[in-house]
Amino acid sequence: MTARPPKLPFVAILLFAVALTGRAQVKVTADHNTSATATSAFKFKNVPSPAKDDLGAKAKLLLVDGELDENGANPSALIDGVLPTEEDEPARNLFFNAGTGGGRFRMDLGSAIEIGQVNTYSWHPNTRGPQVYRLWASDGTDPRFNAEPKGNIDPASCGWKLITVVDTRSQEGNDGGQYGVSIADASGSLGKYRYLLFDCYVTETADDFGNTFYSEVDVVAKK
Ligand SMILES: [Ca+2]
What we know:
Elements: H1 7-21, E1 26-33, E2 60-65, E3 103-124, E4 132-138, E5 161-167, E6 177-185, E7 191-200, E8 214-221
Antiparallel strand pairs: 1-6, 2-3, 3-6, 3-7, 3-8, 4-5, 4-7
């Protein structure tokens, strides 16, 4: 007789997961345009195209940890509304240095604002195309708040809340092209936050070139 998996523990795990996430139901939508179909318009099936007048456009960006590639753009390129016009355009993308394991950058909106969406865009012909990061957020009011947590510090220990984990890599590994990610919540609001921390990881470690070419980050106010 084959043993059936017990049902109760599964339900218990499910309830525990719901308890952990509370009412928040964060949804990550990721779209991919292959190198053949990607254009400078960054047009996607479900993810909105980059906007120029989003909250992010007025934010302040800070490199918190990691080393940027000198051939790439400054952090401000993430909010300038200017997009790359071709699939390998270092000067219009922010990316961490070859051979390094990613890094962290922070966005400061100036005051706590109800956020509807956080959208991120990238474009590269191969392994620097996909996006792998954790998104953290804070209103900055926690007495333990650390506004610049380095890579060896768990943001959860110093006033940050994990919003979600993004990983757009495919199983097949044919990962070149253009990516659009939209992070939203079923309630319409991700929460009221002043700071966003992007904790970026390499997409692969088979060679030194796994740091994503990030083209733009949009923060959209709750409607
Ligand atoms: Ca840009």
